[in-house]
Amino acid sequence: MDSILVTGNGPLSGQIPIAGAKNACLTLMPATLLSEDPLTLTNAPRLSDIKTMTQLLQSLGAEVSSLQDGQVLAMSSHDLTSHTADYDIVRKMRASNLVLGPMLARLGQAVVSLPGGCAIGARPMDLHVEGLEALGAEIELKDGYLHAKALGGLKGAVHEMRFASVGATENIVMAATLAKGTTVLKNAAREPEIVDLVNCLRKMGAQIAGEGTSTIEIQGVDRLHGATHQVVSDRIELGTYMLVPAICGGEVELLGGRKSLVESFASKLEEAGVSITETAKGLKVSRKNGPVTSVDVITEPFPGFPTDLQAQMMALMCTAQGVSVLEERIFENRFMHAPELVRMGAQIEVHGGTAKVTGVDQLKGAPVMATDLRASVSLILAGLAAEGETTVSRVYHLDRGYEHVVGKLEGVGAKIERIKSQ
Ligand code: EPZ
After folding, report:
1. Which of 53, 128, 165, 172 to mutate to test the pocket of ligand 1 (most atoms within 8 A of CB)?
2. 2 FRET partner, CA 20 to 30 A, in 88, 133, 179, 419?
3. 214 and 323 in one domain?
4. Are 351 and 327 in contact (CB under 8 A)?
5. Which positions ≥6 away from 300 have C-beta within 8 Å?
6. Residue-number span of the structural domain to which 382 is assigned
């Protein structure tokens, strides 16, 4: 397994291009199952999760061609040959469950493995099941697989979710586009990736209103046609790289970044003493003078502070002046980066879903281990600011969500290299 060697190298400055959003692309790709016509995505990120979703769609009989070095995905699911999403793919990537709603709507049946737990939590699918059953699907759990049927087609309904689940919102909205009648989804998730999905579905002929709010209304149609859609910028990659000048000093311009994608995160950074200005090309970020000051963070569904930026923010708070309390309210086990940061000299006390971080003057480089996607990049951020060398192992986690991370950071002056495993 490869590792990444980072050596603290003082303030970093330059430009970092922001890629298309992983979590938008992973729901846009299954949307191809809703139509017999081709769906083409541009500005797609080059990530291992996208390759996994490609394999899954191809296992169902869809054609997926990766063009222009992976930035264009030309897809067609004219002839589907299977309606089963196998455990060996779903266990690698939970987002595989996003084929459930589209397959049910298009084929009237779907067999999708339960994803099983992952590092950050149990990650059940009860909210997906409840929503699809409200649309008339019959779903039973058998030998670890959800067996879903709607042979007479899905029917629109009014359904309120118990929690604003991102994936459940995406599955239900996609299924409802081809249901008979109107669906009103209440307590829907409001993430920008859902807005991007709806923009794409609308180009395919779907009739949807309310995306980005807690109530989404979908008027079912008989069929959807093809489209070409540009994937929205990745707000989590954007937020991650905004932390580079915040933790190291210097000034970085994030190309393609927009403050509207990271409002709650950006206001927390500004509270901590980071300056963020919109430019013609994106966002320019620098810290005013010296280390940032500690701020408290609570993760919430959008538009609250994103759980996917909690680990990265913790790395910054390790070097801040003062004490910061971070509360993780979305996932039950998302502090695995904490003990690794402690190995670098951080002062962190974890009690259940709350972590208390007392800033230190200087982190020290050390060998550390990535445990999940966002934890891995928080260790890279800490290594950029630490004195000496940090080796982050198991960086396959990183490859899931960050394209060309070494190249992008070298571009702002970081001393960083990938060590190929023997
Ligand atoms: C999406 O996961 C993202 N993944 C996650 O990003 C992100 O952390 C999460 O939303 C929250 O913003 C993709 O979009 C591919 P949820 P998802 O359903 O849809 C519980 C990353 O790092 N829940 O909103 O799985 C669940 O256990 C990844 O890029 C149920 O209880 O998130 C969790 O505690 C990590 N029952 C909470 O809700 C359900 O049926 C949020 O889950 C579904 C979810």
Report:
1. 165
2. 88
3. no
4. no
5. 329, 330
6. 3-19+233-419
Half-sphere exposure for 159 (CA within 13 Å, toward CB): 27
- Contact criterion met (CB below 8 Å) for 199 and 228: no
Centre a 10 Å sphere on the Cβ of residue 68 and count the other Cβ atoms it contains: 10
**Total number of domains constituting the chain:** 2
Ligand 1, atom 42, lies closest to the CA of 165
**Which residues form the pocket of ligand 1, taking CB atoms under 6 Å from any ligand atom?**
22-23, 26, 94-95, 121, 123-128, 163, 165-168, 307-308, 330-331, 373-374, 401
Q: Would you please indicate which residues are annotated as catalytic (active-site) residues?
A: 118
Contacts of 99 (CB under 8 A, 6+ apart): 30, 33, 56, 57, 60, 85, 110, 112
Model-wide pTM > 0.90: yes
More confident residue, 138 or 144: 138
**Angle subtended at Cα 358 by Cα 357 and Cα 360, rounded to the nearest 5 degrees:** 125
Query: Read out DSSP for 125-149?
Result: -HHHHHHHHHTT-EEEEETTEEEEE
Q: pLDDT of 154-171, one tens digit each?
A: 999 999 999 999 999 999
- Residues 19-34: pLDDT tens digits? 999 999 999 999 999 9
Give me the CATH number covering residue 212: 3.65.10.10
Tokens of 111: 């067999």
Chain position carrying tokens 């901590």: 272
